[in-house]
Amino acid sequence: MTTADRTREIVPEDDSWAHHPRPEDPFWNESGLFTFMVPELDINGYFYVWHRPNMKLTSAGVALWDAVGTETHNCLFSEWYHFNPMAPDTDMFNFRLGNGMSCELLEPLKRYKLGYAGDEMQLDLLWEGAYHPPNLHYSNSDADGFEVWGSVHYEQLGSVTGTITLRGETIPVDCHAFRDHSRGLRPGPARNQSGGGFDYGWASERTSFAVTSARPDPTAPVTASSVDRIGYGHFVQDGKLGQITGGRRVVLEREPDGRPRRVELLLEDEHGREMRAVSRVRNCLKWHSLWHMQWCLAEWEIDGEHGWGENQDWFDINVIRRHQRENLGAAR
């Protein structure tokens, strides 16, 4: 990545891969995550795509979970398909997949129409950005290895409206949530990944944050005190956005299986401001892919304001496997 890439503003063309050269490497990645929630029902969900344009394939899925069921086989709904053929006119946020997922880019960096048509669940959602996404470019995180996930990365909080239809029941959606986009080489299976987490929260247009952190010792046991170093992110305070320059993430309490109960963030930004946020976890989905992630709906207090968001808590798969097998009484 050049210095210009690190410092330039994210522009509408970044929401498409048509405007950017890429190598022929099959592991070139263009991925995007959208989240949504129904807090009053303790429901959380994701709409997630990993495009591999040089392979002409998209790996993608949707999930919905509440406070009952923490696995993909016992949550409200989970579907992921790795081998969606890519149509010739596919672009980052304009696609229709064989597994029933669809996305239409209505306004770059601002408005997205998300759809899913399955036998048991359907989604009809409008995702709208609340502010211009900052260029995060993993700027403070070179020592933590986040740069292996791509050379360009931006994140944004916004509003989500529409409906979930689950086994014939229609559930209205009217919330604030998160999206991101990463672009760059993402090679084969990741090994020995740093633990840590991603957390976001929204209290109002004047108060919100999204931040990623890394655990100093990636091999630390699950039961060890988790004090994570802030890698990158941003927060909005008094209506003004600033990129995060320091701080820490502390998991105050965990369940026996390792999932977080409460998380505290102490954040500092480029304007010399500080933010404190404390969460209470409301549900959990144990999600396995790049690492073992415990993906949780979170109820936040952000600088004294009530809000909603997520706690995503990460462990390298070998660390969590060892912990959970010991809990099961396994000899090895």
From TrEMBL:
Domain of life, source organism: Bacteria
InterPro entries: DUF7065
Protein name in UniProt: DUF7065 domain-containing protein
Alphabetized Pfam families for the sequence: DUF7065
Annotated spans, Disordered: 1-22
Domain DUF7065, first and last residues per copy: 5-186
